[in-house]
């Protein structure tokens, strides 16, 4: 046997040993080894898309506006609607939610199915209002929603922006990941962390502001008004888009065909009227934004009418619908999303 053939054989044996060792290490760590991708075939064989979600506390009680029960065994929500779009794109009729608490979702996606789990209950994607972060073994889709932290205050509060929070009492949700942003936004405020009760404290004047993810802030204000009708109109969102964040879908590394299918689904959904309708259905704020405050002469404003869009307003006011991007840039602190306009709100028509 020639020397070159011996080297090839030695190399092949080395690769086999290295691969076997790696597989053993992955199994020892409880991490799913990444075989050549057959994700789409697996999903089609099961005839359902299995989605890891935080479905609420207790499980299945709902985590609005991302997923919530509309009747027994049926769900709605922004994440649920996207899951249905992805399933349709892949060609399966059903979506099945698999519950894990939010901090455990990445681990659930990467772990093999638990002993005794139903056949096929391994989960295909992670879709749960999740902000992408570095997680070995997971790749992230394109964004399906851009959003930011927002500032909630009492309706009669003098606070108009985070600049007014110096020396005041400010709350945030019990979230280590958001604290750095909140401290940067309100560096001279007295910061407290809460899991519940903060809206009541705002109304009672015991908190001066609360900084929170916009999508969840909207829903919690709505739920609070339903529970306490006497508080309706007592809160307002003073500023939107204090940070730039996004939600994305998690897919196991090594499943590029599934990632591509997810990204195609997101692109199709975002380009359709259904996407704007979903944002209007689920993310319209129940509290008015702050009054427009300008130094010197009052700025030119446009009062939004029902059914208007930024493109339509730009065409009406500037003769060029492409200038919707200017409107968005000038009003990012006043409206939560280019697709979410509330009748009666006012847009500034010039740079601040």
Please explain how this structure is put together:
With 352 residues, the chain is an alpha/beta fold. It has helices spanning 3-29, 39-46, 78-90, 105-110, 176-185, 198-203, 214-227, 256-271, 273-283, 310-318, 324-331; strands spanning 48-53, 68-71, 74-76, 94-99, 125-126, 138-140, 145-147, 149-154, 169-173, 190-194, 209-213, 235-239, 245-247, 250-252, 301-303, 346-348. The strands form six sheets. A five-stranded mixed beta sheet has the order 10-9-11-8-12. A three-stranded parallel beta sheet has the order 4-1-5. α3 (78-90) crosses α8 and α10 (310-318) packs across α11. The longest helix is centred in the first third of the chain and has 27 residues, at 3-29. It is globular, with a radius of gyration of 24 Å. Mean pLDDT is 84; it is low at 1-36.
């Amino acid at each position: 046997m020639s020397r070159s053939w011996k080297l090839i054989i030695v190399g092949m044996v080395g690769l086999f040993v290295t691969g076997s060792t790696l597989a053993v290490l992955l199994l020892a760590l409880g991490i799913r080894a990444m075989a050549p991708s057959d994700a789409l075939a697996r999903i089609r064989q099961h005839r359902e898309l299995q989605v890891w979600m935080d479905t609420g506390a207790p499980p299945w009680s709902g985590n609005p506006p991302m997923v919530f029960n509309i009747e027994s065994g049926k769900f709605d929500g922004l994440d649920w609607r996207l899951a249905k779009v992805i399933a349709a794109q892949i060609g399966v009729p059903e979506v099945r939610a698999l519950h894990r608490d939010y901090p455990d979702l990445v681990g659930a996606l990467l772990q093999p199915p638990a002993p005794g789990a139903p056949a096929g209950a391994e989960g295909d994607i992670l879709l749960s209002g999740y902000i992408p972060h570095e997680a070995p073994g997971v790749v992230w889709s394109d964004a399906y929603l851009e959003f930011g932290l927002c500032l909630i205050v009492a309706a009669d509060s003098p606070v108009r922006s985070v600049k007014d929070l110096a020396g005041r009492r400010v709350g945030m949700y019990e979230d280590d990941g958001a604290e750095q942003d909140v401290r940067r936004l309100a560096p001279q405020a007295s910061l407290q962390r809460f899991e519940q009760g903060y809206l009541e404290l705002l109304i009672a004047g015991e908190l001066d502001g609360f900084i929170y993810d916009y999508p969840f802030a909207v829903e919690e204000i709505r739920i609070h008004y339903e529970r306490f009708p006497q508080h309706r109109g007592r809160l307002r969102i003073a500023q939107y888009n204090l940070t730039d964040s996004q939600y994305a879908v998690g897919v196991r590394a090594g499943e590029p065909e599934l990632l591509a299918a997810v990204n195609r689904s997101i692109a199709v959904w975002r380009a359709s009227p259904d996407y704007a309708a979903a944002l209007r259905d689920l993310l319209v704020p129940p509290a008015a934004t702050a009054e427009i405050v300008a130094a010197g002469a009052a700025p030119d404003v446009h009062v939004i009418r029902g059914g208007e869009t930024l493109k339509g307003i730009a065409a009406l006011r500037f003769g060029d619908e492409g200038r919707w991007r200017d409107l968005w840039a000038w009003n990012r602190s006043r409206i939560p999303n280019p697709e979410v306009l509330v009748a009666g709100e006012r847009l500034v028509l010039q740079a601040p």
